[in-house]
Protein: Kinesin-like protein
Amino acid sequence: AAMGKETIRVFARVKPLGRRQQAGSYAVDNEEPLPSLEITVPHDLADGFINNKRESYKFKFQKIFDQEAKQDVIFDSIAKPVAECVLAGYNGTIFAYGQTGSGKTFTITGGAERYSDRGIIPRTLSYIFNQLQKDSSKVYTTHVSYLEIYNECGYDLLDPRHEASRMEDLPKVTIMEDSDQNIHLKNLSLQQATNEEEALNLLFLGDTNRMIAETPMNQASSRSHCIFTIHISSKEPGSATIRRSKLHLVDLAGSERVAKTGIGGHLLTEAKYINLSLHYLEQVIIALAEKNRSHIPYRNSMMTSVLRDSLGGNCMTTMISTLAMDKRNIDESISTCRFAQRVALIKNEAVLNEEIDPRLMIVQLKKEIQDLKDELALVTGKQRTSELSQEELLQLDELIEAFLKDNDADSSLDIGADMRKIKYCFVHMKQIINHPMASGKKLLSQDISEEKNSNEEVEKLKGLLQQRDNEINILVTMLKKEKKKAQDALSQLNATSAGSTVLEQSPYMSLEESQSPSRCFSLKDAKDFSSSVPRLPLLSRATGEKMSLGCQEAFEVFKRDHADSITIEDNKQLLKQRFDEAKYLGEKLNEVRNKINHLKGKIIQRQIQRAALAVSNPSEELTFDPVEENLRMQVEEEKKSYKAVYGRFKGLKVEIEHLQLLMEKVKLKLQKDFEVWWSEEAKKFQQEKPEMVTSPNTATVYPQFIRSSQHLSRNSSSDTSRGSLYEDPAVKNNSITFGNPTLETRTPPSSSTSIPLTGDSQADADILAFIKARQNILQKKG
Ligand code: ADP
Ligand code: MG
Structure:
């Protein structure tokens, strides 16, 4: 699945001229078969430094974007095709190369102020997440990482320890090479981002960390390389193949060179890079562009090691040459274009990065086995299970019998090409030889299974009978208790002689429930509850059906009287409070974020002012600027508060998850208590009536129930974390949905609204049904 060899695509982008800048002379021609950029060397410059006859240079590019090109156009023509490749499973790299101030950061990340100035990274994130959302045919996972390389040291801009420590004190990102010569970066964190907001939040944090680390003395932004990487893995449901791809978005260090004055001649080519690693990058590119070079010096610098795959390897690579075309920067622009021409010669071959997931392979093989079995069944006309059916066994027995009786020497036993049948015949023959007495008329297999069947049937009916007896007994006792409660309540009511006081005595009763007293015993509620919890295994196990009606009714009453219902209600309230709080914090995060962005803008303004000052007054360069320092301190402060609020937000998330789990637990405990209570009640009746059959079910309820409850809680916790708990708190503050508590809690109705004692209440009807069922069973048995 290779894309075929392709050269690195090289584009040029010309930065708009500054207000006081003097325009250099250049011409853009995007019409030719290959677009070209022609730069004319200013005469004064040519006379002074360059001793040659040529005064204009022509460079070929994939396309040239002149000063007025906007960010959306840049994204559409440069980044989008690469993003599409990455979505298809290929690796991609886009790097910006050019002198400091030529617009690398503006192109890759974007301007800080206007939304329309968003650069390639945010637009790519937006595009990728949009595409992923649209494609439901695959399951996608996305991560991002953000690496800064400064002075040959790697720093993780997304390391969460940034808040506590200075960049220099964090563990350095180092390069590891495995036996297959693949590069791995140690100490570089991969942060999962499930949506655009999360990814943007990470980009924002990384950029802030990068800015904070920079001081006027270490101009990190011009001397460091930054690599923002989007990692995507995808898989079709049911397929064992995982595709992984990476998109590196690279903001290189400034490409400016130190001019060696006084030597004369070809000064532009001899000038040395300020940044040594760019020198190594150039060496790698020269080596790659040369034919028949076997050794490429990737290992000379960290940056070339990291980008090894993107240069001359398995990657779709694109370079953007950023150019500042004012007169003073023409020489640097020519250097940039020369570099670009060499890069354009490099051929890369992107291949799909696929690997096999062994677990899924097993699933696939199992399916294949089933398919083959089905096919076999189709051909033989018989469904093949691992065991022969009763019918088939009988048939075989008859065949064997006929075969043995047949005195014809030529007679054969024809049972077809079925290993199971052949095996059975041999076993059977062996039996006849070893026990000639037992092999009378009836064959062993029949005897055993028939006897077993009837025994099983009796046992099953006995168990069922036992259960029904227990249920009836428990329900009758409950009815008695309810009757007593109702009588108590009635007498209390008479004592106070006011209808409204009933409501006061029962704070948990809702109006609706007080109006329809029979509701508390309706079957519908019991079903609602039991659908949100695992089924009671107590009775369902023996009968293989849903919890019996009687059991459900008893559970309803038990639930109503249970003290934990109050806890559930309290937690529900608390949960709502926490949701509100989380929403508020989300809004707050947005505010602080805006503040930081504003301060960042101010710092940049200040830097521009000072840079302008330095030009007019060179001696003042690199002095300490208290205003900027102050602004930086403010950003530092805001960042702290952002961290603090975000920390609280995260804390809340944990709390909410915790609360949800807690409620789940209470719910399960209630059910477990009911189980215990029910089985104890059942035992009581058994002791009272020792002639009854003992059911094995009551004793073994416990372990199975516990297993099923664990299963549930695991499910529910993954449910809650799948919600928007990890979504960007700042942006999504209006839609914080943590996944609502699943527990259906009804406010427990007052005990005074108990079931009617006579007449045809549901409970009474159920008891009658049970008694009838019991009679049926007895009849069947008899
Ligand atoms: P670099 O990262 O190459 O050092 P920057 O991206 O920081 O350069 O650009 C320097 C300045 O020029 C910034 O203030 C930036 O906003 C501005 N700039 C660069 N390119 C453009 C552009 N195409 N349109 C408008 N402003 C730009
Ligand atoms: Mg920059």
User: Anything to note?
Assistant: The first strand starts at residue 2 and ends at 7. The first helix runs from residue 43 to 48. The mean pLDDT is 74. DSSP finds 23 helices and 19 strands in the chain.
